[in-house]
Design goal:
Low-confidence stretches: 1-13
Number of domains: 1
Radius of gyration: 18 Å
Order of helices and strands: HHHEHEHEEHEHHEE
Helix content: 25-40%
CATH class: Alpha Beta
Shape: globular
Length: 232
C-alpha cells in the first residue's frame, strides 16, 4: 500500500483500512509474545478451525532423520514430527512460545530440543540438518541473511519445506469475511510464482504446489540446497 501525500487525497476506505491493518499487526505481535497463551485459540478462529491442519500438512514431506523447525510457535509440529520418529530441533525467538512448547512436549513424554535464537544467526554447525521446516513464518524469512544461514546448516542436497501462505476459499459469509481480513492484513496476498526467483539466486532449487482443503488452500514450497550454486 503506497503512502498517500495527505489524508484528503486518500480513497474513502484507505484510512480506516490502514488503521485496521496497524492494529491487527500489533495484536499479532502481542499474540506471539505477551499473550501467547491465546495463540492457538485466536489462530483457530482466524483460520475457521483449519490452523492445526494447515501446520501439520507439511508432515508427509518430512522423512529424514534430523530436522530443524524455525519458528515452532506452540509446538504442534514438534509433537507430530517427534511422534513420527524424526529427531526434531526447534528455534524460536519468543520466550513465551518456548515455554508453551516445552510444557506441551513434556506433558506427552516427548523430548524437547528447543533453542531461543534468531534465524539470521543460527546457533548450529555447518551441514548439520537434513531438513529445515517453517510454517507461516514472519517477515524474517524474506531477509537474505536468514536464507543464507538456513542453507549453511543444511547438508548437501538438504531440503527446506515451507508453508508460508494460506487462503480461505469457502463462499459462506463467515468464510468470505475471514478471507477479506486475511487479505487486507497481508496474511493472504495474491500468489505469484515469480516471487520465488530470489530464492534460486541464493542457492536453492525451488518447486511449489498447492494443497486444497474443503474451504481453504495452502502453499507448500520445497527448496533443495543446490550443490552447483554458491551464494555470494
Amino acid at each position: 500500500m503506497e503512502k498517500p501525500n495527505n489524508l484528503g487525497s486518500m480513497p474513502p476506505l484507505a484510512f480506516p483500512k490502514r488503521i485496521l491493518i496497524t492494529l491487527l499487526r500489533l495484536f499479532f505481535k502481542l499474540l506471539y509474545h505477551q499473550i501467547a497463551w491465546m495463540y492457538d485459540w485466536v489462530a483457530s478462529i482466524v483460520s475457521l478451525g483449519s490452523w492445526q491442519n494447515w501446520v501439520t500438512s507439511v508432515v508427509p514431506y518430512l522423512n529424514d532423520p534430523k530436522t530443524l523447525e524455525i519458528g515452532f510457535g506452540t509446538g504442534h509440529l514438534q509433537v507430530a514430527l517427534s511422534q513420527k520418529g524424526i529427531s526434531i530441533y526447534g528455534l524460536d525467538e519468543s520466550h513465551q512460545m518456548a515455554q508453551i512448547t516445552q510444557r506441551r512436549l513434556a506433558s506427552m513424554g516427548l523430548r524437547s530440543n528447543l533453542i531461543r535464537g534468531d534465524a539470521q544467526v543460527l546457533p548450529f554447525a555447518d551441514n548439520c540438518f537434513h531438513q529445515v521446516v517453517m510454517t507461516f513464518p514472519a517477515e524474517y524469512i524474506l531477509i537474505p541473511a536468514s536464507l543464507t544461514e538456513i542453507r549453511r546448516v543444511l547438508v548437501n542436497d538438504g531440503v527446506v519445506i515451507m508453508a508460508p501462505l494460506a487462503w480461505i476459499t469457502g463462499r459462506k459469509p463467515l468464510e468470505r469475511l475471514a478471507a477479506w481480513v486475511n487479505h487486507i492484513t497481508g496474511e493472504a496476498p495474491e500468489w505469484d510464482a515469480k516471487s520465488l526467483e530470489p530464492l534460486k539466486k541464493l542457492g536453492f532449487e525451488v518447486s511449489w504446489e498447492m494443497i486444497n482443503f474443503k474451504t481453504s488452500k495452502i502453499l507448500i514450497i520445497r527448496m533443495q540446497k543446490s550443490l552447483h550454486k554458491e551464494y555470494g
